[in-house]
C-alpha cells in the first residue's frame, strides 16, 4: 500500500538513537479527520437516526472535536510514524518514545510531531578474513561401510518360525497376556496376538524377562512391580500378576552378503561395486558435514571478534520467531496448539528463558554478517533472487513473476535479499578461513555411524 507523504528531518542523531521531526501535509490531515468522522458516523447509534446515517455535525456536537482528533491520532500516528522512518532513511528497530507534539491536528493545517527511535546497531568488526577454524580430516572406516551393509540386510530380513527352542533376546514372539490385580483384570494391561521383539524394551522389564526361556504354547504367570510414579494411580507402586502365553516364536534371518544382495538393493551387479558406492557416498556426506562445521566455526569466530550491543527488542522478536516456529512444528504433528499453550504456560516461559542466549547469538550473527556484506560490497543479483523465488513459485503452483509480485507487496523480498547477502558473507568468511587441526582437548565429536542416505543420492537405488 502506498504510504502518505510526510516530511521528515533527522535531528539529534546519536549512536543508538535519533529524533525525527515529522510534518504531515494539511491536505492529509484534513482527509484523515474527514475519514475518522465518516467512520464514527457509520458506527454510532443515536436515537432518531438509523445506523450509519448520523450527520457529521451531530457527531461533532455529541462527541466533540477532541474525541474525533484522539481517534484519528490513534488510527493514523502509527502509519505516519512508519512513513516518517521510511522517508528519513534511518534504520530503526523500535520507537523508543511515543510521538510528541505541541499542537494537535487541525483541519486545513499541517501537523508536526517528533519521534525518538532506536537505531539498528552497527557492529565494530574484528578480524573476519584469515580466521583459523578447526576442520577434522574425513575418514570412512570399514566399520561404517559394514554398518550400512548390515542396514541393507536388515531391510531385507525375514522372520522364520522356530520350534523346539526357547525364547531368546532378539526373537520375535506372538503372545497373549493379561494383567490382574487382586484377581481383577486391569484395562489396558491385556492384549492378544501381541508381537514383540524380545529385548526391545517395549513392555515392562519384569514381563519381558519372564518371557525369556519360554517355549511355544507355554503359559506362565509373571509378577511385575509397577513404579511409584506410574501414570495410573490404581497400579502405581503395586504388583500386578500377568498371565502370559507364547503362541509363536520367530527369528530374524538376514540375507547373505553376496552379489545377489547387491542386485536386490541397487543397480549394481556385484557386492564390491555396492560397497565402493556406499563408501563414496559416506565420504561425500562426511565431507559436507565437516565443511558445515568448519564454516560454522569460522563464522562464530568472526562474530566473537566483533563488538555490538544487541537491543532487547531484537532479541525479543527473535525469540518470538523461534517460538512460532516451534508451535508450527507441533501443529504439523497434529497437536492442538491453543490447548498446548494453555496447558504449558510455565514450561513455555521457561523455554523462552532458556532460549534467550541462542536468540541473542542469532541476532548478533545476523548483524555481523550484514556488516561484512556492506564492507565487502556484496550484492544479491536478480539471478540470486530468482533462484529463491522459483522454488517458492513451484511449491505454490504459480508463475515466478506472480510469486515475485506477491513477495514484493508483502515486503518479504527484502528478507530474501538480506538472507542471500548473509549467506554470501558467510561464504566469504569460509573462503578466507584457515583450516587447523581440531583441539582434541575440546572434544571433537566422533561421527556416529553415518547414514549414507543423508547425502544427495540414496545408498542404493532399487
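Sequence proposed for the structure above (462 residues):
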Amino acid at each position: 500500500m502506498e504510504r502518505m507523504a510526510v516530511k521528515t528531518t533527522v535531528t539529534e542523531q546519536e549512536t543508538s538513537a535519533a529524533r525525527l521531526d515529522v510534518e504531515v501535509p494539511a491536505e492529509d490531515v484534513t482527509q484523515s479527520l474527514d475519514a475518522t468522522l465518516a467512520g464514527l458516523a457509520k458506527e454510532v447509534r443515536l436515537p432518531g437516526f438509523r445506523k450509519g446515517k448520523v450527520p457529521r455535525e451531530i457527531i461533532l456536537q455529541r462527541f466533540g472535536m477532541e474525541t474525533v482528533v484522539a481517534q484519528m491520532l490513534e488510527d493514523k500516528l502509527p502509519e505516519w510514524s512508519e512513513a516518517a522512518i521510511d522517508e528519513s532513511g534511518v534504520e530503526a528497530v523500535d520507537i523508543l518514545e511515543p510521538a510528541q507534539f505541541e499542537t494537535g491536528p487541525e483541519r486545513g493545517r499541517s501537523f508536526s510531531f517528533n519521534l525518538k527511535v532506536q537505531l539498528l546497531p552497527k557492529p565494530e568488526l574484528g578480524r573476519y578474513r584469515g580466521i583459523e577454524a578447526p576442520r577434522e580430516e574425513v575418514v570412512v572406516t570399514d566399520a561404517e561401510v559394514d554398518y550400512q551393509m548390515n542396514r541393507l540386510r536388515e531391510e531385507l530380513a525375514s522372520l522364520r518360525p522356530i520350534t523346539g527352542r526357547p525364547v531368546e533376546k532378539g526373537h520375535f514372539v506372538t503372545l497373549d497376556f493379561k494383567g490382574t490385580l487382586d484377581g481383577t483384570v486391569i484395562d489396558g494391561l491385556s492384549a492378544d496376538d501381541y508381537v514383540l521383539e524380545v529385548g526391545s524394551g517395549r513392555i515392562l522389564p519384569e514381563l519381558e524377562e519372564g518371557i525369556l526361556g519360554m517355549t511355544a504354547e507355554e503359559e506362565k504367570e509373571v509378577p511385575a512391580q509397577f513404579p511409584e510414579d506410574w501414570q495410573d494411580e490404581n497400579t502405581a507402586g503395586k504388583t500386578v500378576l500377568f498371565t502370559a502365553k507364547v503362541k509363536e516364536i520367530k527369528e530374524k534371518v538376514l540375507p547373505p552378503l553376496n552379489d545377489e544382495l547387491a542386485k536386490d538393493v541397487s543397480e549394481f551387479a556385484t557386492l564390491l561395486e555396492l560397497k565402493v558406492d556406499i563408501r563414496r557416498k559416506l565420504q561425500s556426506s562426511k565431507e559436507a558435514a565437516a565443511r558445515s562445521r568448519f564454516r560454522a566455526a569460522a563464522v562464530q569466530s568472526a562474530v566473537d571478534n566483533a563488538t555490538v550491543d544487541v537491543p532487547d527488542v531484537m532479541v525479543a522478536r527473535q525469540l518470538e520467531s523461534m517460538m512460532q516456529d516451534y508451535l508450527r512444528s507441533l501443529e504439523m504433528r497434529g497437536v492442538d496448539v491453543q490447548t498446548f499453550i494453555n496447558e504449558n504456560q510455565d514450561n513455555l516461559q521457561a523455554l523462552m528463558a532458556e532460549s534467550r542466549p541462542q536468540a541473542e547469538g542469532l541476532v548478533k550473527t545476523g548483524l555481523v554478517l550484514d556488516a561484512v556484506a556492506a564492507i565487502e560490497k556484496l550484492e544479491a543479483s536478480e539471478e540470486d533472487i530468482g533462484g529463491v523465488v522459483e522454488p517458492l513459485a513451484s511449491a505454490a503452483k504459480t508463475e515466478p513473476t506472480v510469486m515475485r509480485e506477491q513477495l514484493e507487496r508483502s515486503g518479504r523480498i527484502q528478507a530474501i535479499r538480506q538472507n542471500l547477502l548473509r549467506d554470501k558473507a558467510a561464504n566469504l568468511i569460509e573462503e578466507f578461513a584457515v583450516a587447523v587441526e581440531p583441539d582434541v582437548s575440546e572434544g571433537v565429536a566422533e561421527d556416529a555411524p553415518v547414514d549414507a542416505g543423508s547425502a544427495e543420492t540414496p545408498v542404493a537405488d532399487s
